[in-house]
Design a protein that fits this description.
mainly alpha, Hypothetical Protein Yqey, Chain: A, domain1, Arc Repressor Mutant, subunit A, 2 domains, YqeY/Aim41, GatB/Yqey
Protein backbone atom coordinates (compact mmCIF):
# COMPACT_ATOMS: atom_id res chain seq x y z
CA UNK A 1 0.00 0.00 0.00
CA UNK A 2 1.32 3.44 -0.90
CA UNK A 3 2.22 5.69 2.00
CA UNK A 4 -0.47 8.29 1.19
CA UNK A 5 -3.10 5.53 1.09
CA UNK A 6 -1.85 4.26 4.43
CA UNK A 7 -2.19 7.78 5.86
CA UNK A 8 -5.81 7.91 4.66
CA UNK A 9 -6.54 4.53 6.25
CA UNK A 10 -4.84 5.59 9.50
CA UNK A 11 -6.88 8.80 9.53
CA UNK A 12 -10.12 6.81 9.32
CA UNK A 13 -8.93 4.39 12.00
CA UNK A 14 -7.96 7.23 14.35
CA UNK A 15 -11.39 8.80 13.82
CA UNK A 16 -13.15 5.51 14.57
CA UNK A 17 -11.06 4.87 17.67
CA UNK A 18 -11.35 8.51 18.81
CA UNK A 19 -7.57 8.68 19.18
CA UNK A 20 -7.24 12.46 19.27
CA UNK A 21 -3.43 12.61 19.33
CA UNK A 22 -2.99 10.28 16.35
CA UNK A 23 -5.82 12.03 14.52
CA UNK A 24 -4.18 15.43 14.91
CA UNK A 25 -0.78 14.06 13.83
CA UNK A 26 -2.23 12.38 10.72
CA UNK A 27 -4.15 15.53 9.77
CA UNK A 28 -1.03 17.66 10.25
CA UNK A 29 1.02 15.23 8.18
CA UNK A 30 -1.52 15.09 5.35
CA UNK A 31 -1.55 18.88 5.34
CA UNK A 32 2.27 19.04 5.20
CA UNK A 33 2.31 16.51 2.33
CA UNK A 34 -0.33 18.52 0.42
CA UNK A 35 1.63 21.72 1.00
CA UNK A 36 4.82 20.11 -0.34
CA UNK A 37 2.92 18.84 -3.40
CA UNK A 38 1.61 22.34 -4.10
CA UNK A 39 5.10 23.74 -3.60
CA UNK A 40 6.62 21.25 -6.08
CA UNK A 41 3.56 21.29 -8.38
CA UNK A 42 3.53 17.50 -8.63
CA UNK A 43 2.28 14.60 -6.51
CA UNK A 44 4.75 13.08 -4.06
CA UNK A 45 5.84 9.46 -4.25
CA UNK A 46 6.60 7.41 -1.15
CA UNK A 47 10.14 8.78 -0.91
CA UNK A 48 8.81 12.33 -1.01
CA UNK A 49 6.26 11.57 1.71
CA UNK A 50 9.02 9.99 3.81
CA UNK A 51 11.01 13.20 3.38
CA UNK A 52 8.07 15.21 4.70
CA UNK A 53 7.73 12.83 7.65
CA UNK A 54 11.46 13.11 8.40
CA UNK A 55 11.29 16.92 8.35
CA UNK A 56 8.28 16.86 10.70
CA UNK A 57 10.19 14.59 13.09
CA UNK A 58 13.19 16.92 12.95
CA UNK A 59 10.92 19.91 13.65
CA UNK A 60 9.51 18.13 16.70
CA UNK A 61 12.96 17.17 17.99
CA UNK A 62 13.97 20.83 17.80
CA UNK A 63 10.80 21.73 19.71
CA UNK A 64 11.60 19.14 22.38
CA UNK A 65 14.97 20.81 22.97
CA UNK A 66 13.32 24.23 23.26
CA UNK A 67 10.63 22.94 25.63
CA UNK A 68 13.23 21.22 27.79
CA UNK A 69 15.19 24.46 28.00
CA UNK A 70 11.95 26.22 28.99
CA UNK A 71 11.19 23.53 31.59
CA UNK A 72 7.85 22.55 29.96
CA UNK A 73 7.70 18.79 30.49
CA UNK A 74 4.04 18.62 29.42
CA UNK A 75 4.93 19.90 25.95
CA UNK A 76 8.04 17.68 25.79
CA UNK A 77 5.87 14.62 26.42
CA UNK A 78 3.36 15.66 23.73
CA UNK A 79 6.07 16.25 21.11
CA UNK A 80 7.79 12.94 21.92
CA UNK A 81 4.47 11.10 21.55
CA UNK A 82 4.00 12.74 18.14
CA UNK A 83 7.52 11.67 17.14
CA UNK A 84 6.70 8.05 18.01
CA UNK A 85 3.53 8.23 15.90
CA UNK A 86 5.39 9.76 12.94
CA UNK A 87 8.16 7.15 13.09
CA UNK A 88 5.59 4.42 12.49
CA UNK A 89 5.33 5.54 8.85
CA UNK A 90 9.07 5.44 8.23
CA UNK A 91 11.03 2.29 7.38
CA UNK A 92 12.86 0.61 10.25
CA UNK A 93 15.72 2.81 11.41
CA UNK A 94 19.31 1.58 11.24
CA UNK A 95 21.01 0.70 14.49
CA UNK A 96 24.21 2.52 15.38
CA UNK A 97 26.30 -0.54 14.46
CA UNK A 98 24.57 -0.95 11.09
CA UNK A 99 25.08 2.74 10.34
CA UNK A 100 28.74 2.54 11.38
CA UNK A 101 29.26 -0.41 9.00
CA UNK A 102 27.66 1.53 6.13
CA UNK A 103 29.81 4.59 6.92
CA UNK A 104 32.97 2.45 6.93
CA UNK A 105 31.98 0.86 3.61
CA UNK A 106 31.30 4.27 2.04
CA UNK A 107 34.63 5.63 3.29
CA UNK A 108 36.48 2.67 1.76
CA UNK A 109 34.49 2.82 -1.50
CA UNK A 110 35.26 6.50 -2.00
CA UNK A 111 38.86 6.23 -0.82
CA UNK A 112 38.34 9.13 1.59
CA UNK A 113 41.46 10.18 3.48
CA UNK A 114 40.27 12.95 5.78
CA UNK A 115 37.64 15.56 6.61
CA UNK A 116 38.04 17.24 3.22
CA UNK A 117 36.51 14.15 1.59
CA UNK A 118 33.30 14.31 3.66
CA UNK A 119 31.20 15.53 0.71
CA UNK A 120 32.11 12.52 -1.42
CA UNK A 121 31.36 10.09 1.41
CA UNK A 122 28.01 11.74 2.17
CA UNK A 123 27.09 11.70 -1.53
CA UNK A 124 27.76 7.96 -1.70
CA UNK A 125 26.12 7.18 1.65
CA UNK A 126 22.92 9.25 1.72
CA UNK A 127 21.00 7.42 -1.02
CA UNK A 128 21.66 4.16 0.83
CA UNK A 129 20.46 5.34 4.25
CA UNK A 130 17.79 7.84 3.17
CA UNK A 131 14.77 7.57 5.45
CA UNK A 132 16.46 4.93 7.61
CA UNK A 133 18.82 7.23 9.51
CA UNK A 134 18.66 10.86 10.54
CA UNK A 135 20.89 13.13 8.45
CA UNK A 136 22.56 14.71 11.47
CA UNK A 137 23.47 11.30 12.93
CA UNK A 138 24.95 10.23 9.58
CA UNK A 139 26.89 13.47 9.24
CA UNK A 140 28.25 13.26 12.79
CA UNK A 141 29.34 9.65 12.32
CA UNK A 142 31.06 10.39 8.99
CA UNK A 143 32.79 13.42 10.51
CA UNK A 144 34.05 11.35 13.46
CA UNK A 145 35.21 8.52 11.16
CA UNK A 146 37.10 10.87 8.87
CA UNK A 147 38.67 12.65 11.82
CA UNK A 148 40.15 9.28 12.80
CA UNK A 149 38.13 8.66 15.97
Amino acid sequence: MALKERLDADLKTAMREKDTLKLSVVRMLKSAVKYREIELMKPLDDAGVQGVIASEIKRRRDSVEQYRAGNRQDLVDKEEAEIRILQAWLPAQLTEDELRAKVDAAVQATGAQGPKDMGAVMKALLPEVQGRAEGKAVSDMVKARLAGK
